[in-house]
Amino acid sequence: MITFYILGNFTTLFLILLLLVKKNKSRADKTLFIWLIIIFITQLFHYLTYTEILYKYPHWLGIDMSMPILVGVFLFFYTKEITGNKLASNWKTFLHFLPTVLLILFGIPFFKLTGPEKITVFKSDGVGFELYETINSITIEVSGLLYSIWSLIIIRKHQKKIRNNFSNIEKKNLQWLRFLSIGFGIIWLIVIFFDDLVVFSMVVIFVLCIGTFGINQLNIFNSNDQIITIPEDKPIEEQDLKKNSEIKNSKYSKSGLSKETASEIYTDLKKLMNENAVYKNKEITLVELSKQLNVHPNYLSQIINEMEGKNFYNYINTLRINEFIKIASLPENKKFTMISLAYDCGFSTKSTFNRHFKLVTSKTPTEFFKSVNSN
What we know:
Number of strands: 0
Oligomer: single chain
Shape: elongated
Helix content: 55-70%
Largest sheet: none
Number of helices: 18
Structural class: mainly alpha
């Protein structure tokens, strides 16, 4: 078990060093850096306490007792930053640190003890400080669960928003961070039923997952920009309209877009797709497409949702699937693999292609063409 703790500590330290030498650090990188330092300190103190090494330096005992709260706080901060929602520099951000500050103040009587007295308290499982230990434990557990859930809510909103703005979301959907947030929540559920030995073992696994997911993402620990920038939903000015006309349909009245204007834009959209096949651009975005059509992105998003019954992401990928079926059915293309044709249609990964093909046709590519050829 001690070897396992050491592995976790060295993994955390390694990730910290990777971020330290990273060039052009973003706010999210700096937040992740602090988050990992906090995790490292909590791991280190638990290891030193578990091995009783810290008993040789008793004035350090208890320093880390309220620190686990900050692990949840910085998970939330990192989630905010990496999704492009910058933290405000005001009292609202400070409120996240208030529970930790209050617990430290509440623990002053313990910190005023002599070294031998602190050791006695630790060896007797907190005798004399039962109330503080109970409040501290409950606060840590509740805050851990709350910040995990809060982070998941932010990620879910982010994933929904990028589907209205990007045609390729595999590197933007933060699925890895969603898994980490779920894992973090599970840790605090485990706290309720198991002792510190199990809990900190789970923390080590959590850190190993951060390292695995982070290195697989590549851009977390190198100098590539990993912040997902999504256009803000700004109010639409009158001059942003492609064509102005009187609002005659309540369906569009809230946005100021008339039925006739929406129909004209939709016609232009279909023409652009049919003639230029812009969906083959792997990185086509709502903003880029709206510029080509000379319309406001909010209008275009609304029209796609209303006319097609799909968000931008599903709309573009449905067009790609239809194009794939068309070109894959041609005799001269039989010599090419399905995935190479899928890439030509704008897909960037095999998994995305297969998922959307099944979504559009209710069959796998093999099943689909087998049924077509048998007819």
